[in-house]
Design goal:
The complex is a heterodimer of chains A (about 350) and B (about 350). With about 350 residues, chain A is mainly α. Helices cover about 75% and strands about 5% of the residues of chain A. Chain A has a two-stranded antiparallel ribbon. In chain A, strands 3-4 form a two-stranded antiparallel sheet. In chain A, helix 6 runs parallel beside helix 15, helix 10 runs antiparallel to helix 11 and helix 14 packs antiparallel against helix 15. Helices cover about 35% and strands about 20% of the residues of chain B. Chain B is built from 13 helices and 12 strands. In chain B, the strands form 2 sheets. Chain B has an 8-stranded mixed beta sheet, sandwiched between helices. Chain B has a 4-stranded antiparallel beta sheet with strand order 2-1-4-5, covered by helices on one side. In chain B, strand 7 (about 185-190), helix 8 (about 195-215) and strand 8 form a beta-alpha-beta unit. The model of chain B is unreliable at about 1-5 (pLDDT under 50). Classes of the chains: A mainly alpha (about 350), B alpha/beta (about 350). The interface of A and B includes residues 249, 254, 258 and 332 of A.
């Protein structure tokens, strides 16, 4: 089991390195536009050259990639010039590990820009995930157990209708009616737990979280319902009944164990995706999360930020894959760990 | 075993009387079992033979009460050891399931839960009906696995079903069925999903355990070879009804009904003359939604013209003795079936043995 976990983690790391290479090849092959975007409209050739040298854009792509990797692991200097460090250390900015690059637009290191946004996105994602998993799976189970009745139809129908509404519509609806008109919820804003405690934090992110959750919920309701129904026709469920187990034990132990296992996979992947930011939800509620940051960076040609976010998001997805793989080896005895 | 001593061989255990199982569907009523009557005595084996859709499995699931809370309508009478099962409450029926009547299913791989160890599943079956600790149930599971011939049962008890071979899985299913020492075991095609080489071992094991536990067995099969080896009595089913019923040897040697003849003619015999022909039964099993009028086998019966008029298509034949043996009954309008079988059917498929019995 340990060797299996280590191997999965190593494969995950290798995938992440390949991911950064692909990202670099796509983004940094032509940096002229990025340099232009970095110094404005009336850019002199000398200025361009200085900026390109400072940001390391004058190196070939593979050298840039190598320096990026080194920065992530050990930190790096801007500009990366040993002679300048010796002569004029005050002109050199040191970016400590994990260094994801320097954003000229923000006049700041990418990691420092992302760090704040990251906690906003993680807060929304984790609360939304909890809501859609708990309620979605629960409703799916109820719909499956009440299959064909009006309860089933209402659950599946309502979640589907909500799913069909665009996120910005649901978001604004919740914002206007639940926060502004009725005042039942606090006006959404992000307060770190360290500053205002758990309840202030939760109250501030609950509406964006619900907005994000209802989008995923419909899928989980349908998926759970389908898996539970499919499992309940399996031969081993009939065996469990034939043993004389109560309906409660047959459903609670035998049906759910098999039906809910595939949901772990889906949940892991979906959580990774929302951790990387939810652009529309963050924009509607004006939360400065990774999603909103990615949109801004793209519009402003802030390539280092974009690379940082892509790498960050890939890391989440790869990590989720590794966790799901390892979790599966515990859940399903048929998954060979040798 | 605990209550085996009080069991008397030959004492009637199960009476199924005029059992009807109908399913309501969008297309109409599926008459899966339509007026089935049979008895099984303690220590005896009844073989139920028939094609897919003849109602053999459905009637057995009715004994376990597994049609409850479905779209099935069950009526008639199922009396097990003096208790009328159809009038029991759901909870009382549940207490009987696995304890007084247990089932061995066809495909042991899909019938065992993939996520629980074999020992846990056997132990669970024991703990439902016995107030024992987990470790006692585990010990019982090890004992049962040893009894059904799993080598090193104390180590294999923690294995998962996918780590067992097909034959071992079926042995584990048998261990699970017998863990509460039930009076009646229903084996639904227990060897169909297994290698031919393993089939005989499983049948031998069932027979050995039957002697040890003195339980009654209903073995459901479409394989007359299995019936010949295992069963004391045979019940041939067609279209949800019993069409022939009798002691095994008597029924196999003197079948009285064209459907049984068809089944016998379609069995290959390795020791027989290679010139003997295999004769499949023409046509398909009847629709249970709109069963044919009269005898449900008449559309496929090559002897229907021997019966005068349109009787086969209009009148349902009664189950009655044709041989003088009251235990051997059949459902057919043909006069003198014995002579027709010897002279025409047997002469056609196995010329060398025709007439030997006369």
């Amino acid at each position: 089991m340990f060797a299996y976990a280590v191997r999965r983690i190593l494969i995950g790391l290798a995938m992440l390195v390949v991911m950064t290479l692909i990202t670099f090849l796509l983004f940094m092959n032509n940096t002229t536009a990025s340099v232009l975007a970095s110094c404005g409209k009336n850019c002199q050739p000398e200025q361009k050259a200085i900026i390109a040298k400072t940001l390391g854009y004058d190196d070939p792509v593979y050298v840039q990639w190598g320096k990026f990797l080194k920065g992530v692991v050990a930190g790096r200097n801007f500009p990366d010039d040993p002679a300048l460090v010796a002569d004029h250390p005050e002109l050199v900015a040191h970016c400590p590990a994990p260094c994801l690059g320097y954003s000229f637009k923000n006049s700041n290191f990418v990691w420092d820009v992302m760090k704040d946004a990251m906690w906003v996105s993680i807060s929304i994602a984790v609360v939304a995930f909890a809501i859609w998993i708990i309620i979605g799976v629960l409703l799916g189970i109820i719909a499956a157990l009440k299959r064909g009745t009006w309860i089933d139809k209402v659950i599946v129908g309502v979640t589907l209708v909500i799913f069909a509404f665009p996120t910005f519509f649901i978001g604004q609806l919740l914002y206007v009616f639940l926060a502004i008109k009725t005042g039942w919820f606090a006006i959404p804003s992000y307060t770190p737990i360290a500053d205002g405690g758990v309840f202030t934090w939760l109250g501030g992110v609950i509406l964006p979280a619900i907005t994000l959750a209802v989008f995923y919920m419909a899928g989980y309701v349908r998926m759970t319902r389908a898996f539970v129904l499919e499992t309940s026709t399996e031969d081993y469920i009939r065996t469990a009944q034939a043993k004389g187990l109560s309906a409660r034990a047959v459903i609670g132990k035998h049906t759910f164990r098999a039906a809910l296992t595939p949901i772990v996979t889906m949940a892991g992947m979906d959580l990774a995706l929302v951790l990387g930011g939810a652009p529309i939800t963050e924009s509607v509620f004006n939360f400065n999360g990774l999603g909103k940051l990615a949109v801004t960076a793209t519009r402003e040609f802030d390539l280092p930020i974009n690379i940082g976010i892509v790498v960050f998001l890939s890391a989440f997805v790869i990590l989720a894959n590794v966790v799901v793989d390892i979790a599966y080896a515990f859940i399903d005895p048929r998954v060979s760990v040798k | 075993m605990t209550n085996s001593d009080s069991r008397v061989v030959g004492e009637q255990l199960l009476h199924v009387n005029d059992l009807v199982v109908h399913f309501t569907t969008h297309d109409g009523i599926v008459k899966a079992v339509d007026g089935l009557t049979y008895n099984v005595a303690r220590g005896q084996t009844l073989g139920i033979v028939g094609e897919s859709g003849s109602g053999k499995s459905v009637s057995s699931l009715a004994i376990l009460g597994l049609h409850r809370n479905t779209n099935a309508m069950v009526s008639g009478s199922i009396n097990l050891g003096g208790v009328e099962l159809l009038s029991l409450s759901d909870e009382d029926m549940r207490r009987k399931r696995g304890k007084d009547v247990a089932m061995i299913f066809q495909d042991p791989l899909s019938s065992l839960h993939p996520y629980y160890s074999v020992g846990a599943q056997i132990g669970e079956a024991f703990r439902v009906h016995n107030d024992v600790s987990k470790s006692e149930a585990r010990k019982r599971a090890i004992d049962m696995l040893g009894l059904v011939g799993i080598p090193q049962p104390d180590r294999r008890v923690d294995d998962y079903p996918h780590q067992f071979s097909g034959g071992m899985r079926q042995r584990a299913m048998i261990a699970m069925a017998l863990v509460n020492d039930p009076g009646l075991v229903i084996a639904d095609e227990p060897t169909t999903a297994l290698d031919v080489t393993v089939q005989a071992q499983i049948l031998d094991l069932l027979q050995k355990l039957q002697r040890e536990f003195n339980s009654a067995i209903i073995i459901i099969t479409h394989d007359l070879g299995v019936v010949a080896e295992m069963a004391d009595e045979v019940l041939v089913m067609y279209g949800g009804k019993a069409v022939e019923n009798g002691p095994t040897k008597e029924l196999l040697v003197h079948p009285q009904m064209p459907y049984t003849w068809g089944l016998l003619s379609s069995v290959p015999d390795v020791t027989a003359d290679v010139n003997n022909k295999l004769k499949p039964i023409p046509g398909n099993p009847p629709s249970l939604l709109n069963p044919p009028g009269g005898c449900s086998f008449h559309p496929r019966c090559e002897f229907r013209d021997r019966v005068g008029g349109n009787t086969c298509a209009t009148v349902i034949p009664v189950l009655e003795s044709k041989t003088g043996d009251p235990n051997h009954t059949s459902r057919c309008h043909l006069k003198g079936p014995e002579d027709i079988y010897q002279a025409e059917v047997l002469a056609d498929v196995a010329p060398a043995t025709a007439g030997e019995e006369h």
